[in-house]
Every structure is written in structure tokens, then in C-alpha cells.
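Subject: for your reference before the review

Hello V.,

The reviewers asked for a structural picture of the protein, and I figured it would be easier to keep everything in one thread rather than splitting it across files. Below is the amino acid sequence we used in the manuscript, unchanged from the supplementary table.
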Amino acid sequence: MGRMITVKGIGKVSQRPDYVEITMMLQTSDKDYEKTIETASMKLEEVNEKVREAGFDKTVLKTTEFTINTSYDEVQDSNRHYRNVFKGYICQQALKISFDFDRQVLSKTLSMFSKLASHPKIDVEFTVRDSTAVSEKLLQDAAANAKRKAEILTKASGATLGKLLSIDYDWGEISVFSDTEYSFMHESGIHTDMNMPDICPDDIHVKDTATFIWELL
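And here is what came back from the structure prediction:
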């Protein structure tokens, strides 16, 4: 086998967020199964209503999780033996709504959600609509970075860079989200077009690597 050079290319991309993802978790519990399902359905319909009031079609609201589990309490009897006592059913629904980042649209949407009687846990994250384009830029930058390093090293050692022999990449999923933390409070009226700051989310900074092997001439 001839001489080779192995170089790790590092790709870095910074991108301004242009997309918003709002996620929420609805939880319902009751000793009666049918009552649990009925209440969970009512909570979901309330969210759908607020989505429509915010100006969206209800189809933009996606269910990412729906689980129903039983819950038990551990109780000690008179003989100090523990036994499980049925407590009830717990239904959890994870929901997500995504749209192009617009301060007024975000403000109106959160204002609607602040009026939900169920007070779900809500998270707001800033990302990009086209994450594939970001991933492609990362790979292009990693390849260019590796080649620059290889050319510098070979020139400094008096060798010549030959043909590319292999590329090793793990194809792991890249998280394309801004580090900006947006805390949501449920008090009615706290989010309005009048009092919401004109926020500018931090750019998304992502990094990825790939390993390249060239022959040396």
C-alpha cells in the first residue's frame, strides 16, 4: 500500500433562524378510562380552537405523541407490607405547530395559547425551514476544510496530493436550532402585539466533521 494522508474536515455554518416551532404537552388524569379520553379530547379541541383564532388552519397542529398509562400508589398496610393501589389513567399528548418566523404572528399565537384552561407546558424554539440546505453547506465546508489542510500538509512535507481514496462520514442527525431560550408564561394577556419585545433570535451555529483519505505522490 502506498503512502496516504488522512485528514478530518470540519464544517461550520451560521444561519439566521427563519422558522418557529412551538411544542406543548397536555396531560389528563382520571380514575375512569372513558372520562380520561373525553377530557383529553376536550383539551385538544380547545387547542385547535386557539390555533384557528391565531389565524392558522387546524391541520398545522401536529400530534407527535399520544400515550395512555396506568398510575399506582404504593400503600403500606397494617402488616407493613406494601401493595400497589390503582390511582387512575394518565393521558399525555405532545403537540407541535410550526410556521415562518414573524414577531407579530408569534405574539398572537402565544397570546391565544396563554388563554388555554389546561395550562400546558409550552416550549418555543427557533430553527430553519430548510435544514437540508444547512446540512449540505456543512458537508461542502467540511470537504473544503479537509482539502485545504491536506494541501498545506503535503506542500510543507514536499509531497504531492494524489487522488481521493475514501470519505468516512457517520450521517448523524444535526440539530439545527438557535440557542436562544424563550420562556413562556401562562398568565392571560401577558403576550400581546403591544408588549412583546422585538426579539432577534441568535444565529444557529452548527458543526460537523468528515474524514478524508488521499494518496500521496
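For the response letter, the relevant points are probably these. Confidence is low (pLDDT under 50) at residues 188-194. Strands lie at 4-15, 19-30, 62-76, 82-100, 121-127, 161-168, 204-216.

Happy to draft the paragraph if you're swamped.

O.
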